[in-house]
Batch of 2 targets.
Target 1
Amino acid sequence: MIRSILVILFVVLFLVLSIPLMLVEWIIGKFNPSLKDRSSLAIVNWAFRGVRLLSGVKVIALGEENIPKDTAVLYVGNHRSYFDVVLTYIRVPRPTGYIAKIEMRKVPLLNIWMKNLHCLFLDRKDIKQGLKTILAGVEKVKNGISIAIFPEGTRNKVADTFLPFHEGSFKIAEKGDVPIIPMTIVNSAAIFEDHIPFIKKATVVIEYGKPIYIKELDKETRKSLGTYVSNIISETYFKNKKEYFG
C-alpha cells in the first residue's frame, strides 16, 4: 500500500508543481518548437523515472540497438498495464507521441503534458474521428515525431494472450513511410493490475524487434500486417517469459 500512496502523491505533486513549467514550455514552443520537444521529453522522462523508482520496478531492455536513430518510427506493442507507457516512454531516443484513448483528454494537467509530447487521442467508437487521428499520426511521423500505439485497442486483461491487432494502426507507418518497431512487453501487469489497488516490485522485460519496412514485405503480408506483427510479438513474448520467468 505504501508504494501505491507514494506513486499517487508523486504524480499529483508533479502535475501541480509543474504548472509553471507548462507556461515556460508554452513560451518556448512559440519561438523554438524543437527545443520544446526536447525539454518536454526530458521533463516527463524525469517524472516517469520517479514513478518507476517508487514502484520498485526493474526493467530488462533488449534490442534497443534495433531502433533507428535517424528517422521517426511506429512503435507497436502488446498492452497489459497502465505502466506500459511509463516504462517504454523512458526509453524513447527522440520525441514520441503515444496514441491514447480519448477519455485521457479530459484529465486536467496531464492532458497538457500529453499534448506537449505529441500524444494523440483516439475515439475508437467514432470511425470518422479515428481516421482523423490516424492521419494526424501520419503527419507526425513525416515531421520526425515517432508514434507509439497499442493496436489491441485496450488493455488485455487475460494473461499470456493477445487481442487482434487493428489493421488501421499500421497506416501510420505505411502512409508515413517509416519503419515499424515491434515492442514486446512481458510481466508489466505484475506491477499493479494483478493485485489492484497495490503496486508491487516486479521485473519487466521489454524487447524491441528489428525494424519492419513495409515496402520490403510481399503483397500478402502487407494485407495482414496486424497478424504479421502480432505473431512476431507473440513469439518474442513467450521466448522471454520462458527465459526470464521460467
Target 2
Amino acid sequence: MIKELHEKLKNKEITAVQLAEEYFDRIEKKDKEIFAYLTLTRELAMEQAKRVDEKIARGEEIEILEGIPGAIKDNLCVMDVRTTASSKILDNYIAPYDATVISKLKENGAVFLGKTNMDEFAMGSSTESSAYGPTKNPYDLERVPGGSSGGSAAAVAADEAVWALGTDTGGSIRQPASFCGAVGLKPTYGRVSRYGAIAMGSSLDQIGPITKTVEDAAIILSAIAGEDKYDATSAQSANKDYTDYLTGEVKGMRIGIIKEHLEGLDENVREVIEKVIETYKNLGAEMKEIELPYAKYSLPVYYIIMPCEVSSNLARYDGIKYGMRANDHKDTELDFNPENRTLLENYFDSRRYGLGAEVKRRIMLGTYALSAGYYDAYYLRAQKVRTLIKQDFEKAFEKVDVILTPTTPSPAFKLGEKTADPLQMYLEDIFTVIANIAGVPAISVPADPVETEGKKLPLGFQLMGKWFDEENLLRAAHAYEINK
C-alpha cells in the first residue's frame, strides 16, 4: 500500500495535499461512528504535504514515506499538539517536544493526520477505559477494536490512515491488530527508542507500527528503529531496510508450536491456527513442537511487574508540574475550598478526579506489591520467574527460528462485555504478554476470518522471533501473507 501510493506521488498521479485531503474527508464521513481519533492535526498535515509537493515540483527524488498519511497513538508526544494518553489528568497537556519516533518520521517526510484514541495510559485491552469514550471496531460497531492501541488499529482498518503507530506493553499493538484485521508489530525491546512515549511499564513498553501489510510494517520499522541518546535501553540498529528481507521464501525455516497453546482454544480459532500451520508446511517450513515450561506463569508475572512500574511511572501526575489540577475544576464532588487546601489534598483530589478506575486499580496493585513486607514475595519473585521465561526462549530458539501461537483467544468481543470483570479483560493478553516479558519481537498477521453471530470477524495469529531478529520474523509473516 505505501509503495503504491509512493509511485502515484512520484508519477504525479496525485499530490500529497490531495492524498491528505482524501483521508481527512474519509475521517469526517466515518469517524463520528468509529471514534478512532481524539485530535486531528490538519494544519500540520497540510504543511508536511505541501513540503513534499514542492520537492516533487522541483524534480527531486522523494523517499518512500514522504507524503504518506498516518496516525499517532495519543501517548506519543508530538510537539505543540495535545497529548492526553486518553486521560482527564492530561486533558490540557500540549507536548513541548517530539518523541524520537516522531522526529524520525518527520525526517522521513511522513504526514500526520492526528492522534488516536486508546485505553487510558495504555491500560486496557478494549479502548473502553479512555476518558473520552470507546472506539468501535470498523468490522462491527457493536464490538471493541481491542486495546490499548484500539484507535490506531481502527484508523488503519477503516482506511482513515495508511499506517499508524501504537505502543505495546503486553499486547497493545498485536491484539487490536488481530481484532481489526491489520498487521501489528512489536519490535524487540530496545529496537525502537521509547523517548517521548508516556511511560506505562518501562521494562515492557515498545513502540511499533500497525499497517495493512507486512511490507508496510517493515517500511515503518526501517524509519523508526535505531539507537537514541535519550533512551539508554535503545540499541544500535538504524539504517537497515527491513523490506530487503521479504523474500516470500520460508523453505527450511523451523517454526515452533507450543502444544498447550492450542489446547482449550475456541474451536473456530483452533481451526484457523491449524490452517495457518498447514500453509507453512506447504511452503516448506519445518514445524516443530516445543516446550516453554514457564510460559504459563507469564500472565501473573506480567500483572505483578507491570502494575509495579505503573505505580512508579504515574506518581508524577500529581496536579503540580503539568496536567490538570483539582483546583482548576469546579466539580461539586470534590467539595472545593482552595484556600484551606493542603498540598497533600491537592495531590489526592487531582488524582481522584483525573485518573480513571482501571488506572487507579493498577496503581493500587503495584503500590501494594512494592510495599514493605510484600516486595520480596511479589515483585522480586516475579522478576526471578521472568528470568526463567527468558531462559525458556533461549532454549527454544536453539531448535527453532520463530514461534507460532494465536494472537488472541477469540475474535473481537462486544462493547461492555468484559468491563465489569477485570480478570476476564486481563485474560485477553494470555498469548501476547510473554513476548514483552522476554523482550522478543512479535507480530500479529491477519489469518482467515471467523464466523461469529452471522458476521465474519478478523482474527490474527502471532509469530515471535529471536531477539533483534525482526528480519526472519518479517520474512515468515510476509511469506504467509502473500501465499495464504
